[in-house]
Amino acid sequence: MIHLALSLGLLLPWASLQDRPANDRLAIRLEDLKRLADDPTLAIGQRESAAMEMVGALDETARAADGPAEKASFWDRAIAVLGEFNEQNEGHPRSREFQLQAGVYRWAQGMSWRQHRELNPADEADSRQAASALDDAISRFRAIKPEEGETALSENVRYRLSRALADRAELEPSDSPARKALESEAVALTAPPPTEPGLKTFNSLLRAELLRRVGHLDEAAAEVESASRLDPPPPPRDLFEARLEILTSRQRWAEAEALIKAAPADDPTKNLALVRLRIAQLSALDPGAGRDALEQDLFRVLDGMRTARSPQARRALVALAASGLKTSKKHSAMASDVMADAFEIRGDLDRAAELESQAAAHADEASDPAGASAYRLKAGAMLFRAGRLAEADALLSRVCNDPKAGASRSKAGLLLALARGRALAAGAPGVTAASYADALERQIRDFPAEPSTDEARWLLANLSRAADDTSRARSLWKEIGPGSPRWLDARLAAAALNLFELETLLVTSERATLKEDFRRAQDELQGSVKQARGDAERAALLVAEARLNLVPLVGNSRHSLECLDRITTMPMRPAERYRARLLRLVALVQTGPPYLQAEREAQMHASWAEPTGRTAFLEATRLLDECATYSEEDLHERRLGMVLRLLVQPAASDPDEERWTAVERAELRMRLARALLFLGDERGARAALRTFSGPPRGTVDDALLRDLADTYNRIEAYELAIDVERLRSRNLKPGSPAWFGSRYGLALAYFRSGQLAESAQLINGTAILHPNLGGGAIEQKFIRLRQRIGSQH
Q1: Could you tell me which of 606, 559, 617 has the C-alpha nearest to residue 587?
Q2: What domain of life does the native source organism fall in (predicted)?
Q3: Which of 63-67, 288-292, 452-456 is predicted with the least confidence, judged by mean pLDDT?
Q4: Which of 234, 304, 578, 771 could join 613 in a cystine, given CB atoms 3.0 to 4.6 angstroms apart?
C-alpha cells in the first residue's frame, strides 16, 4: 500500500535553503537528503527514498506555515522537485507515485486557498487561485493511466481524482451545468469501492457526500452507515458531519439537534453545527411561522461564539451573512450587532454600518447610552473603512459630543481625527487642515492619559512640522513617553529635525554655533538610547546617532563608526542594515586613512546592494557630496569624490528605466558630474552634464537645487546658476537660513558673471528687508562680497 498523508507539507524553494542560517537543522537535513537524491552512485531505490523523505520532512513544517500564499510557494517547489527527479530519472520504479504526489500537492494548494476564502469571503482572488490549483490537480491525476496488475496506486489515483472533482464542483454556482458535470463524474469514480480498507472508508464517505448533493438522500444515508461498519471506521468527526448533513437535508431537525448534543466534538465545533442547523431551519420556514424562538437561539449562540474569536466563530458568521436572513425591529441590539459582524466579514461594510446604526437605535430605546455609542463607534469605523468619510465624521462626532458615551468617546475621538486626515488628503469638500488639527487637539486635551492618544500627538506633531511650527512638533514628540508604540518614531523624527536644521545652518552659521547645536542634538539622542526598551529600538537610535556624527565640520566620524559597530549583532530589517552599511562607508572615508577599504566597499556595492534601499542609497550619495563640499583638504575632497563616483556611476548609467524616477535619475547624473569635479576632472564633469537637461519641471527639493546651482558655478555656467538660484529664492520662506543662502548664491553668481550692479542691488535689497543679512557666517559672506564689488567699480 502506498501511504499518502491527507495532511500535506511544504517544500521550501531550494535557492532559499542556501540562504538559511547554517544552524538551521531543517535546511541542513534537506541539503543532506538532496545530495543523496542526486548521487548517481546510489541505488535508485535509495535515491527515491531520499527524495520522498525530503517531502516528508517538510510536511512537518507545513502545519506551522501562515497563509495560503506562503504554502503555495512551498508546494510549487515541491512539485518542481518531484518533476525534476522524474525527468532526470526517467522511468524509475516510483515515477508514477511521484506524479501522484505532485498532484496531491496541487490539490492541497487548492484546498488551502479555498479554506482561506471560506474565512475571508470578500477576497475573490482566493476562489480563482483555488480553482486554478484544483484544475491543475485534476489534469495531473487524469494523466496517470492505470497499469495492468496494479491496484493500490490506481485506486489512490481514482480516489484522488474523485475528491478533486468534488472539491472543484463546490467552486461553481449551485445548479450550474459545470457543477453538475463535475459531481456526476466524481460520483461515478467512487464505484466500485477500492479494496484497501483505509482508502475504502474515505471513498465511502465521499460517495455519500456526492449522493447527498445530488439529492439521493436514502442512498447517501445507507453509504454512511455502511462506512461506519468498516474496519477501520471513519474518524468520529467525519462520521458526525456526514450524518448531520443528511439529517439537515431531510429536515429532521430534532434528530439533527440530538446528534449535535451527543457529538464527540468540542464546543466551538458543536456551536458551529448548531448555527448551520438553525440557519437551515429558518430558511425552510415561511415568514412568521414560529421563527422567533429559533432566531433568538441563533443569535444567542452566535453572540457567545464571537466572544471566543475561534475559526469556527468566523465560519458561523460567514454562514449567517450568506444565509439571506434579515433582522427585524423586534430583534435586540445584540442581534443587529451580530449580523453587522457577519456582513463586515463578508466585505459589505455599508450594510454592516447600517446594521450597527440599527443596533444603536435599539440601545437608545432601551435607555443604554453607552451601548448605543459603542454601536455608533463601530458603525463609524466601518464607514471610515468604506471611504464614506463625511458620514463617519457625523457619527463619530455624535459619540465624541455625548458625555454618556463612556469608553467609546476616546476611541471615537481618535478615529474622527483619522477620518478628517484622510478626507483632507483626498481633497474632500468642507474638510480643512484646521478642522483636522482641531480634532487632534481635542483628543489630546480630553484624553491625555489614553495610550491611543499618543497617535494623535504623533499626527499633530507631523502636521506642525509640515507647517514649520517646529517648536510645537518637538513639544508633542517629547510628550510621547517610553513604552508607547510611537515613542521610537517620535525620537527618530526629533533626531531627523535636529539633523535637518544643523545641515541647513552649515552655510549660514559660525562654527561655534554649529558645535553648540550639534552637542544638543547629540545629548538628546544619547538620552534616547539609554531609554530604549530593547536592541531593535537601540539599533535604530544608534544609526541616527551615527548619521548625526557624519555632519561635516562638527561631526565625529570615529564615533559614527563606533555606533555602527555596536549594532552588528542587533536585530534590523535588511533595508535598515543596508543603510547602516552605507553610512559606515561614508564614515570610513571621513575618518581618513586607510581610504582603500572604503574604495573597495564602494567598488563591490553591487554585490551587497539592497533592492529596497533606494532611499538609503540616495542619502549616502548626498552625504558624500556634502562632506566633499565642506572638506577643508584637497586630498580628502578627492577621496570623497572617488567613492562618490564609484557608487553613482553604475546607477547613473543603469538601463532599467523602472528602477529610478525621473527626478532621481536627474540627480544621479548631477552627482556624477559633481564627483568628477571633486576629483578635479572638470572636462569629465562637463561631458557628464551634456545629456543633463536639469531637474524635471516642478522640482522643489531645495537641497537638489542648491547643489545644482553650485555645480553650474563650478563649471562657470553662471547664467544657469542664476536661473536656479532665482528658483530657489522663490520657493523658500523669506528670512529662513536656506533663503539667505540662496540670496547669497544668486549675488555671487551675478558677480562672477560680471553683473556687478545686479549683485550689489540684490545685496542692498536684502539688507533693507533684513539689516543683519542673516547674521553669523552668512552676514560676513555678504559683507566680503559687497567689498569685492566695490573694489571693482
Answers
A1: 559
A2: Bacteria
A3: 288-292
A4: 578
CATH of the domain at 557: 1.25.40
Provide, rounded to the nearest whole percent, the portion of the chain with pLDDT above 90: 79
Helix 737-752 and helix 718-731: axis angle, to 10°? 160
Is residue 513 domain-shared with residue 631, that is, in the same domain? yes
pLDDT per residue as tens digits for the range 524-553: 999 999 999 999 999 999 999 999 999 999
**Cα separation, 624 vs 632, whole angstroms:** 14
**What distance lies between CA 763 and its chain's CA centroid?**
52
Please name the residues in contact with 372: beta carbons below 8 A apart, sequence gap of 6 or more: 333, 360, 361, 363, 364
Residue corresponding to grid cell 431537525:
253
Is pLDDT of 287 > 80?
Answer: no
One DSSP character per residue, 179-244 reads: HHHHHHHHHHHT-SPPSSHHHHHHHHHHHHHHHHHTT-HHHHHHHHHHHHTSSSPPPHHHHHHHHH
Q: Report the chain's C-alpha Rg in angstroms.
A: 36
**687 and 713 share one domain:** no
* CA–CA separation, 405 and 690 (whole Å): 67
> In this structure, are 594 and 714 located in the same domain?
no
Provide CB contacts within 8 A for 308, sequence distance 6+. Answer: 268
Q: Which of 701, 721, 755 is the last residue of a domain?
A: 701
619 burial class (0-12, 13-18, 19+ CB within 10 angstroms)?
Answer: middle
- Give the pLDDT mean for 261-290: 90
Alpha-carbon span 300 to 279, nearest angstrom: 13
**634, 663: one domain:** yes
Q: How many beta carbons lie within 10 A of that of residue 426, not counting itself?
A: 10
Interval 239-256: pLDDT, tens: 999 999 999 999 999 999
Distance CA 762, CA 786 (A): 10
Residues 695 and 721 in one domain: no
Tell which residue, 565, 557, 490, 551, has the closest CA to residue 524.
Answer: 490
Average pLDDT over the chain reads 91
Count of domains observed in the chain: 2
Whole-number pLDDT of residue 701: 85
The stretch 243-271 carries a mean pLDDT of: 95
Q: Are 126 and 171 in contact (CB under 8 A)?
A: no
Looking at 677, 701, 725, the residue that finishes a domain is 701
Do 751 and 672 share a structural domain?
Answer: no
Based on the fold, state whether residues 682 and 646 are members of the same structural domain.
yes
| Each residue's pLDDT tens digit, 71-94 | 888 888 889 889 999 999 999 999
Domain coverage including residue 736: 702-792
